[in-house]
Write a structure and sequence with these properties.
The complex is a heterodimer. Chain A is mainly α. Chain A is 68% helix and 0% strand. Chain A has one domain. Chain B is mainly alpha-helical. Chain B has one domain: Arp2/3 complex 21 kDa subunit ARPC3, CATH 1.10.1760.20. The chains are: A mainly alpha, B mainly alpha. The interface between A and B is large, with 67 and 75 residues.
Chain lengths: 103, 217
């Protein structure tokens, strides 16, 4: 296996993800998603309450608080989330394969 | 289809959480037997791509949008066990980091988008793609799996809402499956594009084509 090819793959893959989450994310449609649309149509949307997670989450609704520009707040949240998910996935996968070697 | 707080009753939330926790435990046991260096890299990039692409809602009908799910792509590239773990990671980060999906609905969201989505996508892919010698069959398998994973996840979501007494089953199931049959077309397009890109640039990373590359490893 070529380590260089894997590094190149990770670099290109991450670059694509950062373009999606860090540049294009403010262009996403703001229409309600499938479940929200059904909830509105069938009249149960008022059952939703976001309070518990909104109080605890660092960037509710994919917007970093305190950033006035809406697009920038979304882009920052996108970059932070992408980096966090990548790191946790690599760390978790590494831990799983390490567990195999130990056992 | 991230379920917010308030849509699932405590018994349904607890049951879904228990099923999801069992699936995650079984998956981490299964996944720890089969990981190489390049699979760790692929796991990271796939997880990051699913998170990033899920942010990009696309319009499907007047006034409705959908976004990529990624369960089938994860299942195809990483296998069902790692697929479930990666989808769980994404859904947990979305819930705790970005308040997307309620904390009380976390088990249900992992069950629908992680477990149901991954298993539906993976089974369809395995049946249709066959031995992995045909690129066309692999892409068709990914498309069919992607569509089915979104539709079945939405059906599971409707079932949980009905069991919770939030909305009657039949109208919600009909509406959820209809709109997600359209969102599923977008899911299929994105999954096929991502798989085709990988089959062209790094076919050795796609399970099933790996055997042919074995000599070069």
């Amino acid at each position: 296996m070529s380590g260089k090819r894997n590094v190149l793959f990770v670099a290109c893959g991450l670059a694509l993800c950062l373009v999606l989450a860090g540049l294009l994310s403010p262009l996403a449609s703001s229409f309600p998603d499938g479940l929200e649309w059904v909830a509105g149509k069938l009249g149960f949307e008022q059952a939703a309450s976001d309070e518990s997670v909104w109080a605890a989450s660092p960037a509710p609704d994919y917007a970093v608080p305190g950033v006035e520009n809406e697009g920038a707040a979304t882009r920052l949240a996108g970059v932070a989330g992408t980096v966090a998910v990548f790191s946790l996935a690599v760390g978790g996968a590494w831990a799983l394969s390490r567990r195999r070697r130990v056992s | 289809m991230h379920i917010p707080d308030g849509f699932v009753s405590p018994p349904v939330a607890a049951t879904a959480f228990a099923v999801s926790a069992a699936a995650v435990a079984l998956s981490s046991k299964a996944a720890s037997h089969r990981l190489e260096g390049k699979e760790v890299a692929l796991t990271g990039v796939t997880a990051a791509f699913i998170f990033a692409a899920q942010m990009l809602n696309f319009p499907v009908l007047a006034g409705t949008s959908g976004h990529f799910l990624g369960a089938t792509l994860a299942a195809v590239l990483l296998g069902p066990a790692m697929g479930i773990l990666v989808m769980t990671l994404v859904v947990v980060v979305q819930c705790l980091g970005f308040a997307d999906g309620g904390l009380s609905a976390l088990g249900a969201n992992v069950l629908n988008m992680g477990v149901v989505g991954v298993l539906a996508g993976w089974l369809s892919w395995r049946v249709i793609s066959g031995d992995g010698s045909s690129r066309a069959r692999m892409l068709v398998g990914a498309a069919a799996g992607a569509w089915l994973s979104v539709v079945l996840a939405s059906a599971a979501c409707s079932t949980e809402l009905a069991l919770s007494g939030t909305v009657p089953l039949v109208p919600s199931l009909a509406a959820m499956v209809t709109v997600h049959a359209l969102i599923g077309a977008g899911e299929a397009a994105i999954s096929v594009a991502a798989l085709a890109l990988l089959l062209t640039s790094r076919p050795d990373l796609v399970p099933g084509t790996r055997r042919a590359e074995g000599a070069a490893v």
